[in-house]
Write a structure and sequence with these properties.
Blueprint (H helix, E strand, L loop, with lengths): L4 H15 L4 E11 L19 E8 L5 E9 L4 H6 L2 H7 L6 E3 L10 E2 L8 H27 L2 H4 L5 H20 L9 H8 L12 H14 L2
Parallel strand pairs: 1-4, 4-5
Antiparallel strand pairs: 1-2, 2-3
Helix pairs in contact: 1-4, 4-7
């Protein structure tokens, strides 16, 4: 994650250039990486809502599709909101370590530092907020698409032991960031599949916003989307 004020301001500037959504420092989401069936005690907890064994991986990316923060320790049955609730990054936001906010989908509760879309926008301002939010947050979907096209093992699945799978996922994230820094493209002919992946709808159980988050989001809309 960007640490200095200048780094944070540059990250915010790049996100704002996408759809004019201010003060965004990262886009957050989770993606399931398939793993082999776990036969040990608790193995059924790796089975996700789609019926296969996986690790639910939380990622925060920047506007350049680089992975700034990653959590790989949770089993596939765990909901996205719990992973964020118990991660170190949430503690850093609550401690005031960052000057910006995260954008997440409706699978997360709306908080003062993590904004989600409005479930039922009723005014032009709310509709503008939702449009801008969706376009800006889509960055993390594009990040997943590019990352998985670069490293097909993330698409096919990890069939070593669980600890090796977790380390491999993190290694792929590091190499993905290095490839972006070196301006390496994916193989020719794969761009279409990346766009197709990033446009797939993600079905998430709606999480009600917190009172503080709802108030902060309302103030934000009134300030920036009039």
């Amino acid at each position: 994650m960007p640490t200095t004020l200048n780094e944070q301001q540059e990250t915010i500037r790049k996100f704002r250039s996408i759809a004019n959504f201010p003060t965004v420092i990262g886009a957050i989401d989770c993606t399931h990486i398939r793993v082999k069936k776990v036969n040990a005690d608790g193995g059924q907890l790796y089975i996700n809502r789609k019926g296969f064994s996986s690790i639910n991986v939380q990622v925060v990316c920047d506007a350049d599709l680089k992975i700034m923060d990653i959590v790989t320790r949770w089993r596939g049955s765990v909901h996205d909101s719990r992973i964020f609730r118990e991660c170190r990054l949430k503690q850093r936001f609550e401690a005031g370590a960052f000057s910006g906010i995260l954008l997440g989908d409706s699978g997360y509760p709306c908080t003062p530092y993590l904004f989600t879309p409005l479930l039922n926008p009723t005014t032009p301002q709310e509709e503008r907020y939702n449009r801008s939010h969706i376009h800006t947050r889509n960055t993390v979907e594009r990040c997943f698409g590019l990352w998985k096209q670069r490293f097909r093992c993330l698409l096919r699945g990890m069939f070593r032991d669980i600890e090796t799978a977790k380390k491999t996922i993190v290694a792929c994230a590091v190499l993905h960031n290095m490839a972006i820094d070196m301006r390496e493209d994916v193989f020719s002919g794969e761009r279409d599949s990346i766009e197709q992946y990033s446009s797939e709808p993600i079905v998430q159980r709606y999480i009600a916003p917190s009172i503080r988050g709802n108030i902060r989001r309302r103030q934000f809309i009134e300030t920036h989307f009039q």
